[in-house]
Structure formats: structure tokens, C-alpha cells
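<instruction>
Derive C-alpha cells from the sequence
<data>
Labelled lines for chain and fold:
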Amino acid sequence: MGDARRRRRRRRRKNSRRVPAREGDIEAIPGELLELVFLRLPSPAHLIRAACTCRRWRNVIAGDGGSFLRRFGSLHGASSDHVVGHYRVNERHGHPRPPGLNPVFVPSSSSSSPRADAVAARNLALDFLPRGEFGDCGWELADIRGGLLLLFHSELAPGLLICDPLRRCYREIPRSAWFHGCHMLGAFLLDGEDEDAAAGISLTNFRVTCALFRFGDRNARACAFSSAGGGWTSGAARSSTPVCRDRELAPIYFAGSTKRVAYWTVGDNVVLALHKDNAELLAGVLLDDIEYAVLRDKRHATEYAYQLPWPPTIEACVT
């Protein structure tokens, strides 16, 4: 009986001498064990957040030629685009351009860790973009495609840029001479024309289609930019069309967008349609009052889903 008491006392003394694990001790965890932990994450969105946490975790996830990402994809059946979160914008009613002012990243609600949410929000913030003369941001979110963002600024030059928030880098798009004297109705991001590129869109392989309105002659105009050619073109033959013949300028409102076509209403009975792929603008009379009401009263989205293709383009950090 006495021996049992002595053993219990020795165990208590030994446990009391233990020093709590320091935060830096996590570096001692082998990479193979970290991989086993990461493989148990419930979704690709959680994996992206883990890669944003620190240099070592990013290297474990992105290293070895992407073999871990392939293992994770085969285990979880990740074969399509996945939503990491949303870019929330300031809502503006009655505006001719999609209301995307001051986009702020909001992580997906599927995350189980508030700290992971904070890490994702910090790493996907757009605070690396150029700022105005007084330090203001003022960028408008024009479109999202393939993990890239197209942004527009009405005052800064060149005014259009495409950025990769995950890598925190961007590429400026030169202004077209056609922009002079025109108001931007909308800009849309499309896959590039480089057939040799492995991905459909990247910072070096993309297209942009814009819809413009010239107050002088009250014509709408479409133009397109391709990274392959490095310049702007007029697109289709019908790239410019009159949309307002009355003495008074009819109000123009953005009415929504599909994958291929964007719509605006002009006054009470005209709809303007932009075919994004060939940069063609068409104006026509609305069929009836019901069709007009559907387009005119459609509320703008205030959150734009940020999707990443699978496998995600995560690069290991250089040590």
C-alpha cells in the first residue's frame, strides 16, 4: 500500500515539473504528420486557409510537385471550382455600372475556425492595390473569374487592372483611346486566347470586354482587350449603337449579367445587350411591361463568390 502511494506522489511531482508546450514547438512536428492532419480537413476551402497560415504549412501543402494536392483531391473528390468566400461590396441603387465599390473579402461560413477566417480575410484583402492621391482605395469590383479579379477605378490611371488576391499581385490594363469622353457601363473578364496555356485564365492569359457610353452622340460602344495581342480592338462589326434618340437623356441602369450576355435598361422601353465573347452591342425594344419590370427592379448582388479552380494554384515559398 505504501509503495502505491509513493508511486502516485512521484507521478504528481513529475507532472508538476512539466513545462507547458511553447508555441514554437509546432515547428518540431514532422511534415509527414502535418500532411495527415491536412488530409483530414473537410473541404478545399479549409486547405486554402491552412496554406495561408504560415510559410511552413504552405510549403507542406504546395511542395513535392503538387503530389499532396492531388492526394487531397482524390480523397475528397475535388474536381470542380470551390468557393473560398465572397467579396462584399457597397450596394448602389440605380447605377449604370455593376455596384462593386470597395470590395471586402468575407470567408465562407463553412469554416470551423475563427482564426482561419481571420487569416483568409487578411491574405485575400486587396490592400496591395494602388491607392489614390489621398490614400483612398476607390476600386470597383467589375468581375471575377478563375480566382482572378477585374477592378475598375474612375480616377486612377490606367483605371483597369486584373489581380490575383491569393498571390497578392496584379497587372495593369492600359486605357483605350476609345475611353475618352465615355462613361464605363461595365467591364467583364473572359478566358484568354493562348491555346498553349494549361489554364483557361491567368495574369498572362485573359481577355476583357467593356461597354462604354458616349454622352456626346449618345451611342454605346463595345471594345475588347486581349493579353495575347496587348491592345484593344472594336470586336464585332456592330460594336457601336445608338441607344437614346430623345432630346432628354434617358437613364441607363445595369439590369444583370449571365455567363455570356450583360443587360442594361435605357429609359422605359429599351434594353441594351452586350455579348461578351465577341464584344457586340445590340439595342432593342422591350417586349412588354412585365419584361421591363423584371429587368428594372432586379436588385444588384452585394456579394460576389470567390472561386478557385481545382487543384488550386498554390506555390511553395522560397526559403
